[in-house]
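BUG: 3D viewer hangs when loading the predicted structure for this chain

Environment: internal workstation, default settings.
Expected: structure renders.
Actual: progress bar stalls at 90%.

Input used:
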Amino acid sequence: MVKIDDLYYLSYCGYDGENAFGCVATSSDLKNFTKHGIVVPQLSGDELRSLIKHQQDLNIKYFQPSTGSSYVWDKNVVFFPRKINGKLHFLHRIRPGIQIASVNNLDELNQDYWKNYMLDFKNHIVLDPKFTHELSYLGNGAPPIETEHGWLLIYHGVHDTINGYMYVACAALLDIDDPTKEIARLPYPLFVPDQPWELKGYVNYVCFPTGTILDDEELYIYYGAADEGIACASVNLNILLTELLANKV
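Structure tokens produced before the viewer hung:
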């Protein structure tokens, strides 16, 4: 959840047992919410491939979503906590990377918008898998944090192991005025599942960051542990930014 001007934006995943999509609800008082429903594209795998097939140098995994009538999952919606160049900006996730969208208001997010968006899909990708710990796919976590060096993004990376997928916490830095541009990325995870409540649960081997609190220079990262509990880790913000700036792209 973020507050932009006088309105709170609550993003969440809607799941009907088969398909998962990013949804949004808004509120002015945190008591009464208006559901805006699904805000991400609702495309089959065939539709997506037909829209992106002529774009060069895309990760091959974008061409391997579910096929036929099944929808491509698009979730992990997180909003930037203020308008950028007068527009709402949010991140979303079609595997394997993280993409960005911008609109004047939520009403613009219709099927025509998304079809035009997909025709220029490559230029909307913010992060794609790069390092071993995130090689399978990435996903958003906490809303971006504004710093003097750029937008700090705490996200999750996923890699395959002999025991299945492992979800780890990751960090990157995006340009403050143009968050489509990646400035830096840690070449290693912030933290990984290594405690009993992270290694075994509803979904094993999961550290899934979802929210942050900045208290002076200490950044507290709240995360899902094995999809069963909520845990917290912390790091000094300045130390993290220094490390990120030492790993510019």
